[in-house]
Amino acid sequence: MTSHHVDVLIIGAGISGIGTACRLRREHPERTIALIDRRQDIGGTWDLFRYPGIRSDSDMYSMAFEFRPWQQPQLLSDAGSIKEYLHETAVEYGVERLITFGRRVLRADWSSADARWTVAVEDVDSGRIEIWTCGFLATCTGYYNYDSGYLPEFPGSADFRGELVHPQFWPEDLDYAGKQVVVIGSGATAVTVVPAMAPTAGHVTMLQRSPTYMYNVPVRDTLAAALARVLPERAVYRFVKWRWVTFQRITFKACRRWPKVMRWWLLRSVRKQVGDGVDMAHFTPRYNPWDERVCAVSDGDLFAGVADGSISVVTDTIDQFTDSGVRLSSGAELPADVIVTATGLQVQMLGGFELYVDGERRDLHDQLVYKGVLIEGVPNLIWVFGYTNASWTLKVDIAGEYLCRLLSHLDDHGKAVVVARDHGDNLLDESMLDILDSGYARRARAVVPRQGKRDPWRMEMNYKLDVKVLLHDPIADGVLEFRDAPVNADAVA
């Protein structure tokens, strides 16, 4: 059985893992680190999804790392460009040579006696088990199951004679040229894949159970392009990032404070783009803006397709699949050669591995999260989880910087172990994702950590607040407990 030891072991080589590793390489070059990932390439989400049009739904200025600004002109970027950016970043900081691919984490055990983690890892090709040990564990695994997307049970789906595709497992050889395509769903994936398929398909119908709020985002930021001609790149990046982060936060807060006004504003924008001949009932949700995530429409491509007739939007529920399409509850039938089930993600924590502390199983659903980064009662583990109401990477960046601050604090005070303890009975029966009421957030309530009654046990999804809490507030706050290395521990972080 192969064994390895490093100071910090990072699970995941997507945006979260690469960002965290680069932070450590910058600020703690003396520490040994390693990354393990079950896939065969860098990228995580951006390596997994291959459906047409796959792109970011956040602006790239806030999605890129603070320490390596986005330099390309696209505001919303395709998956290939994002993967290339991640690869170049990993190479620049020497992280790419620290990644072991094709490894699935099965279990992680913390030993207080040894002040270290022991992580059981499976080589996915051979089935061989490897043992990794580390002083500090960083989980950068995202929040959904790579093996299984969310797929409701559709009556009669076995009878359908055409192609039935889930976007998470897109066939490389799928031919939809000139064909009738029905895309089930109205979330971020559907809003991306529908206009991407429309120019090639005979016709694309987006079939939704209920409408989603959408807004137009330009592919290029013209102001950034203009500023780049007269200002240094770093100054342009900082200004544009600040502008988009501020816009995101103000829009989110305005939707919560003045939902009727923001609803009118969003729907008015859609009306102007789809034209007067389109029934706005298909774009008018029953809920308030930002009760669910608002979908970004790249350069208005979906709206343009609806306006020119290459895309149809149908709001109805499914009675059953037939051999040639979908029969709706209204009695109407949608003919289809290809049906795409853009029905969402299957939420999963920690990439599915089991977590133990001194032999006791820890289920994240039963735990609080300290400042959005540490799990209550779990020593020497940072949980890197991004924002759901803004760019994911904004939180990843400051979580990685907080880890560096925390490790420096341990060094400065001669400590080896840190653990967050709740002494105030703060645990609520409330999901940390209850800020949203989308389908994946509701499904996640059974698996994600819970909210606390008060700080630092609440996740507010607020970048400005988190910058203060994670980067400026003192590390030692009376909630964190610090311990010396045990005398029998020969290697700790």
Helices, by number, come to 12
Task: Tell how many strands the DSSP assignment holds.
Answer: 27
CATH architecture of the largest domain: 3-Layer(bba) Sandwich
The coarse silhouette is globular
**Full CATH superfamily name of the largest domain:** FAD/NAD(P)-binding domain
| Radius of gyration, in angstroms, nearest whole number | 24 Å
CATH third-tier fold name of the largest domain: FAD/NAD(P)-binding domain
The CATH top-level class label of the largest domain: Alpha Beta
Total of domains: 2
**Can you summarize the main beta sheet?**
9 strands, mixed
Strand content: 25-35%
Mean pLDDT: 91
Taking the alpha carbons of the first and last residues, their distance comes to 23 Å
Helix vs. strand class: alpha/beta
Share in helix:
25-40%
Task: Give me the oligomer status.
Answer: single chain
Q: Poorly predicted ranges (pLDDT <50, ≥5 residues)?
A: none
Protein name: NAD(P)/FAD-dependent oxidoreductase
Family: Belongs to the FAD-binding monooxygenase family.
Cofactor: FAD
GO molecular function, one term: N,N-dimethylaniline monooxygenase activity
Overview of the molecule:
This protein has 2 domains: about 1-145 and about 345-485, FAD/NAD(P)-binding domain; about 150-345, 3-Layer(bba) Sandwich (FAD/NAD(P)-binding domain). Helix content is about 30%, strand content about 25%. The protein has helices at about 15-25, 45-50, 60-65, 80-90, 190-195, 220-230, 235-255, 260-275, 300-310, 390-410, 440-445, 465-470; strands spanning about 1-10, 35, 100, 105-110, 115-125, 130-140, 145-150, 165, 180-185, 205-210, 215, 295-300, 310-315, 320, 325-330, 335, 340, 345, 355, 360, 370, 375, 380-385, 415-420, 425-430, 450, 480-485. Helix 6 (about 220-230) runs antiparallel to helix 7, helix 7 (about 235-255) crosses helix 8 (about 260-275) and helix 10 (about 390-410) runs parallel beside helix 12. The longest helix is centred in the middle third of the chain and has 25 residues, at about 235-255. It starts with a strand and ends in a 10-residue tail after the last strand.
